[in-house]
Amino acid sequence: MALQEFLQELDQLVTEAKSSFSDAADMDALEASRIEFLGAKNGRLKSAQKMMGGIDKPDKPEAGKTFNATKQAIEAAFEEASERLASGGGGDVDSTFDASLPGSAFRIGRLHPITQTIEELKDIMGRLGFSVADGPEIEDIRHNFEALNIPNEHPARDPLDNFYLATAGLGDDVLPQWLMRSQTSTVQIRVMETTPPPVRIISLGRVYRPDTADATHYPMFHQMEGLWIDENVTMSDLKTVLRLFATSYLGGDVSIRFRPSFFPFTEPSVEADYYWNDQWIEFGGAGMVDPNVLKEVGYDPEEVTGFAFGLGVERLCMRRHGVTDIREFYKNDVRFLEQF
Ligand code: DAH
Fold first, then answer.
1. d(CA 247, CA 323)
2. Closest ligand 1 atom, CA of 266?
3. Is the domain covering 113-337 a CATH 3.30.930.10 domain?
């Protein structure tokens, strides 16, 4: 047999074996290919080896050398294919699998800025001895108005200023009995109804008012309500608590001032402002709990007194972080939310 012909035969064998091994989609297919090419009895490599007997003597060294190289190449191709299948790579599709590529990263969430603010406010007020109380967002008119000394004819009860729940089918003269609470002052009543004095609580949560959304209004927002009832609690305690609170939340020594105001559930009532970054900023409403409210919950106004206050949570958070539009909190735009 001519040397040239033999070398061509070996060359062909390598090409065919490589493509057969790399096409193998599973271990069974690969084993069949192995037997075809590398089988010890009738494998094609074995047949090629037999052909060497017919090569002219002077050409034998070269034929032997090439045969050895061919054998190594085919065995290497087999090893490669079996490693591919062992590591989970199947046919063509999986041959693109690269186990060394980094995996896809999970995005780690974070708390909403208002939730973060609420947690911080609880923390600060907790250090001042206030515990946290909770109340329902769907309220009855007794807790939202009546027990808070807000009688039926009071303008705060106007249907245009409240989200009353439907009274359909009850008749025109039936007053709505339920609403989405318009203030967290409701929780004052719920706590005093069920707890004898003294009480020192805050309550943080959502309130609802049918305001058109703009930079400073939103139909749902959060308030922090505070209530401290005990013997001899005075307005100066109120001022001290608000000042310590503002100092902790905003940092630095923050002053507080009171302006006379009116709320049905406090007497006297004030609007509290704090002085920060060279200006007076509205804090919220406050005052000494009206004796009518104390009586309503079964407390004796001759025995105990107390103060209450209500602050907007969004407003505090906006000041602290320089947010100028309340609507940003509720767009769920991660580019905004990610900054907190
Ligand atoms: N509830 C009032 C509001 O929503 C805020 C408020 C004022 C709460 C005076 C109080 C208070 O506890 O004493 O505007």
1. 20
2. 13
3. yes
